[in-house]
Design goal:
By secondary structure, this protein is mainly β. Helix content is 8%, strand content 33%. Helix 4 packs antiparallel against helix 5. The C terminus is likely disordered. One of its GO terms (molecular function) is ubiquitin protein ligase activity.
Length: 1072
Amino acid sequence: MFHQKCGDHVRLSNRNRTATRTASEFNFGLVFSNEPLLDDQLFQIRIDKKIDSWIGSLEIGITTCDPHTLSFPSSATDLRNGTWVLSGKSILKDGRTLLEAYPLNLDRITEGELIGVLKTRAGELEFFFNGVSQGIAADNIPEKVFAVINVYGKVNQVTVVPHKNAMECIGGDLNDGITQCNSANLVPSLETELTVAPGRRGSANGSGDVPQPQERLRFHERTGSLVKLSCNGRSAERLRPLDEFNNAVVMSKKPLVSDTLFEIRIDRLVEKWSGSIEVGVTTHDPATVDFPATMTNMRSGTIMMSGCGILTNGKGTNREYGEFNLDRLTVGDRIGMMRKSSGDLHYFINGLDQGVAASRVPQVVWAVVDLYGMTVKVTIVDRDEREEQNLITRRNTVLRENIQNSINEISEDEVDDSLVFHPNCGSHAAVINNGRTAHRPNALDDFNNAVVLTNRPLKINEVFEVRIDKMVTKWAGSIEIGVTSHSPTDLEYPSTMTNVRSGTWIMTGNGVMHNGTSVIDDYGQNLDKLQAGDRVGVVIRRGGSLHFLVNGEDQGEAGTGLPPKLHAVIDLYGQATQATIVSHCPSCSPVSPTVPRPLPGMLGSSCSLDGTQALHQQLSSEIHFHSVHGRNARLINGGRTASRPRAMVDFNDAVVITNRPLRRGEMFSVIIEKIVDRWSGSIEAGVTAIKPDDLELPGTMTDLDHDTWMLSGFAVMKDGVMVTHGYPLDLDKTKVGNVIGLRRHDDTSLHFYLDGVDQGEACRGLPPSVYPVIDLYGQCAQVSIVSNAESLAETEDSVISSICAPQVEHAEAESSRILDQSESTVLPTQLYLHKWHEVFGKAIKVDETGRATRSADIPSGGLLFSSMPLVDSELFEICLIGYTRHWAGSLVFGVTSYVPSSAETSLPVSVAAIRDVTRYIQGGDLMQNDEILKSRYCQSLDWLRPGNRLGVKRWHDSSLHFYIDGIDLGSAGYNLPKKLYVVVELFGSTIGIAIVSKGEAGRGDAPLALPDIESAYDRATEEDAEESKRNEDLDKSIEDGELLSEIHDLEVNHICFPSDLNFPFYLKEINK
């Protein structure tokens, strides 16, 4: 409990366990522990209440000052004579800075979180956050010290929580017989040499039960220069893997927790280089470290496993460690690390403990992975004993002498023949999205050297078609497409394909060139005039006739007598910066059923002929598996059968997804046709809101960590995390002939079915548009889709009723949007106005048209959030519609991973108060979580007036871009979380905004052309009467629906600038 003597502005209650500061004051809030601290016993408090109107936050520490005799100062930092205090993220001793950047930042704590302080028997000081030690803050602490708390600034009330043993708070597993923390073995200095233990072996049975972390582990957003993060920071990939072999170091976002396993899975390898992945731990903070080309170059605080040896600070200390060589691991193998409470570091390969690699490892260490040489991509995974057993089985199988024969017996039909981009490409290009997308990452700096070829030659009459995803207006010229006899591995990639002098036919602009010479000057549509969303293609007809296609329309013969075995090629030149292959897989194309007969009374009723055609269009899209699938899966039988051909060798990487989402009331069912008993686990089934073209294919379905609901065994999982277990249906016990079904009910619940029998509700809260997903995992090697007559009848009734109903708007429009969004673009996609989330600030009024307003009498109305996360390459844009003069500042605009919930009692009071990852513009600065990332990122938002627009878009390469009046302000960062919601704070002079953008999945919005900029500072100084009239006119235009038209129909309102602003300097700044 607290000492009864305390600061002048503090009131003690709850038997001196709770300290509350007077709300009208911010200082003189010191409280002390009632008794001196005992060794290795945690003194811990809970944050009960915060008042965000103040600046600063809680301070905590220890002091030799006795509260009985002390004259209390105004704050803890004023204490002297042996006082150590954590203030913000700095450690102070007697008021002077001892350590500037401690891992815990008290300025960011929130209500309900636990903060603790502990003095070890070795005389070391540690601070704790939610029961987890943040590392040694100081040493040589005197024997008799009191805990001191400064209930300061934003923190208004704290409560002492019951004492806990320090090891319990760390969450350690004491199976090795350790009963107390041996802090003397910890290394307080980051530069101290690390002692490596003798190379003894650990148990082959693993390490027993591993406590699960409270939060899923992720990689830190700061990485090596060639790393791309995906899957919300759980996957890391080295860019240009065939050209570069290093500069791909990644580290964990948070320090490792003692006795908790950090495990990664190898997802992709290349054969070009020698050497492979290196894994270890380091004391260097990823937020500040200068990333080396390879981690073996680090000379302090680093332990790495490389090959079969252990290196400490770059020097070999154990050359024969464990039973595995990292250079010989294959795709799917797992590598784990665990720092035990004793300070020993253990590695785990496929779940097998390799023994002690090093001892006396510092308590605060980050996991580090070097995607070196052959290793291209890894993913952080949760421990899975089922997977570990399968990996051991696979290894034993591969070691058998006859395995090569079984691999060679795979039929040609089972070989993956998908047409994708080859990873070899021009120096300014990169292939992403599992080979389906090519882009020019630095599109504003480079305009050429972006040639990309297909992975195999085109077949006769095979259409190769790409959709232009992104464009920039900076350059002249655009995409070029054609065919070449050069292979992607032999071609010396030119700056542009028109420079190739042999075996090449290219369409450029509206002409055709052969081997660099123009052969047709006026051919078809002009490619330089295409926009984002347009499609271009090429096909070689029987007899060697070459044809080009634009938006599906054949432009005529462009050449004759072409030889066989020609690779398709595109050149992402000039304005074209990203393109995605539009699949025309013949085995996966929809099978059109017989045209349904019109129902009695259909003609002449409210169901017109157009309605009949719409009904036919919706019903004619038969469900099948999409051509986007795991690398070990194969599709046959018109895409209705999915199999894992190498079922005796592979057990995962066989996720398949349907070509379209489920319709209302539709059941999706598959029959199990093949079982292989050698593996653990079996089929996994569920649904996802992720569209196939946006899906980053995981090794298993449990790796999908957003917008996914599934059944694995008898465990129901959401976003890869188990929500309940003991479901009546156990998929691991299914047999050949069983029919597994699933259906989304109208109450948003998901039900699974076994042989047509409903097994009950598994979960609820599903969105209306979800795609069925099947994972051919473990024992399940083949399934086929089965028709369900009852489901089809219900679907037809629901479609007919939706077409005939007169009110097909808003919610019903979402349902009717569920059309075939499969491999080829056939039907136009309907646009829907973006919406605000149902949870918003209490002082804000939101109407159904997307307008949000607040009273001009208050300086802030609170926060607004988009109803859905950002969709890649889809612009979310708002327009200012209300303004007042008598408040300083303006709105704050950005994105956040924070998801508002109706169950919350209150929202954060400001964007800066959100603790989740939040990136935003405030004034003219680019901010993240109340810290400036880039000052003068753009013109100040304070100059915006009604009619100006603000937008944000997440590109396919995971970069974030902000827009003002359609002008791209440049990259605002990379490797942000996958699910980002738009967030707006209605603050200062901005009293009204309206959404003006509409959503269209899978298509990119090209930014509007750069408008003429006027130095209209006068517009910001108009008379009040004129301003009031303009606001009234804008309000009326909103009510009439004029302002909420499509973005490209809006009249561009010029940005206001001060009259003395240097315009060229401004353009230079916003394009940085």
